[in-house]
Amino acid sequence: MKTADERKKALLEGMKDGLIVSCQVQKDDPIYTEDMVVKMAEAAKWAGAVGIRANSPEQIKAIKEKVDLPIIGLWKIWYEDSDVFITPTLDAAKAVWEAGAEIIALDCTAQITHEKTVAWDLLDQVKKEIPEAIIFADVSNYEEAKHAVEHGADIVAPTLYGYTKETANIEGADYRMFAKICRDFKEDAYIMMEGHLYTPEDAMKCIYLGAHAVVVGSAITRPHLTAKRFVDLLSGYQHNWRDAEKAKH
Question: Transmembrane ranges (predicted)?
Fold first, then answer.
């Protein structure tokens, strides 16, 4: 069932049919500067975005000081022995919350974490430890979406479609799967689309299919990856640009 908390509901309803821009930069990105994510977020607000998705307590704090939009916060932490990297621990979730994010994004897949737990088990822990937070479940397939909804995630999105071993070779969004998630779960959670959206038309298609809102990142805020997509095609697919997109930092 969707949240009955009036504060959470007001924030989530304020995002309806809107664009959330993922404003992230890593220190080894060619566009990195200390204030880059703030400039990204300011540009997103100027354009009319209804929210920001941001990575790491440091960058969340920097954006929060300058941009008055709800923040979906996460903390990417990579481990050599696990593919789970989006807010993989309770301590990481607490740090994201303390940095000022109203919404905490978690890996809610069935993958095994560095701590040898199932990633989606963290959802119940965070809901218990930080009940004031809105939880954004990043999943990769329908079954994980169902599990997230059943365990009380406020928002569910197929963010990790393409980032698990089972979906590693995909080339684009699975709109049919997303439509089924919307049909089956939109009464119980806010369903958003994130991942592999490159044009306004892609985003509008998702709204038509039932998305409450859409999250777009690389196509807007990572010009080096946009350029690499062009080069990848022009060079006859000799090098896959997604290798750079999925790189550990």
Answer: none
- Residue 54: CB atoms within 10 A of its CB come to 33
Q: Cα(43)–Cα(46) distance, rounded to whole angstroms?
A: 5
Q: Rounded to whole angstroms, what are the CA distances from 56 to 25, 62, 114, 153, 183? A: 10, 10, 18, 21, 33
The pLDDT assigned to 223 comes to 95
Please give the pLDDT value at position 23: 98
Q: Which of 8, 101, 55, 83 is nearest to 218 (CA)?
A: 55
Query: What's the count of helices (H) and strands (E) in the chain, helices before strands?
Result: 11, 8
Q: With a cut of 70, which residues of the chain have pLDDT below it?
A: none
Cβ(51)–Cβ(70) below 8 Å: yes
Domains of the chain by range and CATH?
6-245 (3.20.20.70)
State the Rg of the chain over Cα. 17
Measured between its terminal Cα atoms, the distance across the chain in Å is 37
φ, ψ for residue 112, nearest 5 deg = -95, 135
The one-letter amino acid at 96: V
DSSP assignment of 47-77, as one string?
HT-SEEEEESHHHHHHHHHH--S-EEEE-B-
Q: What is the DSSP string of 182-205?
A: HHHHTTTSEEEEESS--SHHHHHH
